[in-house]
Design a protein that fits this description.
about 180 residues, MutS, DNA mismatch repair protein, domain I, four-stranded mixed beta sheet, about 10% strand, alpha+beta
């Protein structure tokens, strides 16, 4: 296994990607995690592990945006397990449950794609998400042209945006060759 990507968190709450030597946002970090990157967040000054707190912050912000995935009863139960004898067992149990859930999700997608072919709701999910990321990057680039503050805060995402645009164009060519579906 490769070493985890180290993200340094500074006192001003800025996140620094040690791999690319660029500052990133929580949204960038969330995208890295969704892409399957193994990430660790450490305090830039002390080296203290801040991964759990940072990931919790990402979840908190996602929940605040209306992407409510954690039911209130689950959260109540989870809070009840703090300062409880189950506190040491629960993290391992939740890890196992999430692994099984992820494996089942992958199997469900595969079987649905086999059964329904091109009509499956999962068949083009990854392509649609890639196109959405490309469109978002392009929108941010355009907004940066009109807002000097946004342009100043960019962290060298031009290479990433260019690669995303190329991928979107290639996907469009494949779609057009397949009959424009």
């Amino acid at each position: 296994m490769s070493e985890p990507l180290i993200i340094k968190k500074y006192a001003n709450r800025r996140l620094y990607n040690t791999e690319t030597s660029q500052y990133i946002t929580l949204a960038d970090l969330a995208d890295m995690i969704r892409d399957g990157r193994d990430v660790e967040v450490v305090d830039a000054k002390t080296g203290k592990d801040l991964t759990r707190a940072t990931f919790a912050q990402i979840i908190f912000e996602e929940e605040g945006k209306g992407a409510a995935m954690l039911p209130v009863n689950f959260l109540k139960t989870l809070i009840g397990f703090y300062d409880n004898s189950m506190q040491s067992i629960l993290p391992h149990y939740l890890d196992m449950v999430m692994d099984v859930f992820s494996q089942n999700q992958a199997r469900i997608r595969e079987e649905t794609n086999k059964a329904l072919g091109g009509f499956s709701p999962f068949a083009h999910m990854e392509k649609m998400q890639a196109m959405q990321r490309t469109q978002l990057a392009q929108m941010q680039q355009v907004m940066g042209l009109f807002n000097p503050f946004l342009a100043a805060n960019r962290t060298g995402g031009d290479d990433k945006a260019t690669a995303a645009r190329i991928a979107a164009l290639e996907a469009e060519i494949v779609r057009l060759k397949a009959g424009g579906k």
